[in-house]
Amino acid sequence: MKAARFHGNQTVKLEEVDVPVLRPDEVKIKVAFAGICGSDCKEVHTRDGLTCSFNPHPITGESLPIILGHEFSGEIVEKGSQVSSRLTVGANVCVEPVISCLKCDFCVRGERPLCSQLGFFGYNRGGGFASYVNVTEYNCHVIPSNIPLKRAAFAEPLAVACRAVRKSGFKQGEKALVVGGGPLGLLIARLLKAKGAAWVGVSQSRGARAERALEGGADAIFHRAEVNVPREVHEATGGGVHVAFECAGNQESLDTSIESTQPQGRVVVVGLWTTQPKLNIQAVLFGERIVTGSCCAVADDFKEALEALSSGKVRVDDLITSTIRLEDIRSKGFDALDHDKAQIKIMVDLGT
Prior knowledge:
- The chain is of the alpha/beta class.
- It has helices spanning 38-45, 105-108, 149-152, 155-168, 183-194, 208-215, 229-237, 251-260, 281-286, 299-311, 329-339, and strands at 2-6, 12-16, 26-35, 66-67, 71-79, 92-95, 98-99, 119-120, 132-136, 140-142, 175-179, 199-203, 220-222, 241-246, 261-269, 290-293, 320-325, 345-349.
- Strand 15 (261-269), helix 9 (281-286) and strand 16 form a beta-alpha-beta unit.
- The longest helix is centred in the middle third of the chain and has 14 residues, at 155-168.
- The relative contact order is 0.16.
């Protein structure tokens, strides 16, 4: 089968590889659509990589080169002997990409992203940028029949958004700021509006992403290169937001998030970082602000995401700006997302 494999050192190759042998506790998925995540781009374009490793992962035993792709949907075409009746051949599924030990205290209480042996399909085990992928039963979520497979590939990033909003302690009627209008930031903004936010602002440069934020229901857009975002936010909200979501992974976005909140406000760091930031500890201390992180998603987040997609509470189709073939994943995928500011979410169609 064809697969896009990351070899490290900024090298992605389209290669012919063997279809993986199915284990008893797995299903074989014929991948339909796979989304390219910003973390995939950072992995590919960062010289030393971020999550993939040349050393075998302690759970999967896999190392570079690895098949990328952790946002994907497809159809079950084969199931192992130990897979329950919950999953059937012919069912459409999306995949929760977190890999964990299933034995530690965090795993036992359902917080698998906090496992010390955390790994991911698409980074530490072969992922969705391939014709087929084998996935353990507990990582599979059946897609409601009214969700097309292309839309279902958004379940993973929307689940990440659900976890971030939940971790923030957001309450209906509160005001919020999203700093960074990439796919995840846009999904968080839309989810906040669906949950009854009184006001949602988005800090984002001019262009397609800012336009989509407004079209998706944001109350205000702050073009970060043109205005003092915290000052404008305080003026627009009468004293700052209750909660801010840092979705860009840079020093400016962290500072903006903290400074835009009111005293006792909350800041959730969601963006993936490649540098070590400085924290304005005085603003945290004297404003009694809470700064926390939100990593990945768990099963309950996927259930919420699929319900939101099925009911139409959160729209995602307009965020897809390109659909490409696997053969074009480097030039029209990773590189395009890095250089073309008109791109938001690029989907890889594995059926072509």
